[in-house]
Specification:
- The structure is a single chain.
- By secondary structure, this protein is an alpha+beta fold.
- It has helices at about 30-50, 95-115, and strands spanning about 1-10, 10-20, 20-25, 65-70, 75-85, 90-95.
Length: about 120
């Protein structure tokens, strides 16, 4: 079995391939986001060895095990690459002012947590 999210005729669709059978399923951008979140969540749960209750996996905390920063110069964007437990890598793009604000906020949160755990 294989799958892909693709664009066809200007719309998103999920294509599932089972043997010789190909099944295209129209999806909305919101459904694509939910599917992505659920798949990353399932990867994390598996990596942690947790067995969730039967039923749909909607979302999960995403433990960050590494990170890198970079720049997309042609668009003047800051990039934060997050390595997530289980293997996924998530790339976040920030306008410069948002990157600065986010960094400051994360720094202050880290300082507060560090102080409160001493």
């Amino acid at each position: 079995m294989s799958y892909a999210v693709e664009v066809a005729e200007g719309a998103l669709r999920l294509r599932i391939q089972v043997g010789t059978k190909s099944i295209p399923i129209a999806i909305t951008p919101e459904q694509a986001g939910e599917l992505g979140t659920a798949l990353v969540g399932a990867c994390v749960l598996h990596a942690e060895g947790r067995a969730p209750a039967p039923g749909p996996i909607l979302r999960s905390d995403l433990p960050v095990i590494g990170w890198r920063t970079g720049v997309i110069r042609e668009h003047a964007l800051a990039v934060l690459l997050l390595d997530i437990l289980g293997g996924p890598e998530i790339a976040l793009q920030f306008q410069p002012a948002v990157a600065i604000s986010c960094g400051r906020s994360l720094l202050e949160t880290g300082k507060t947590l560090q102080t409160s755990t001493r």
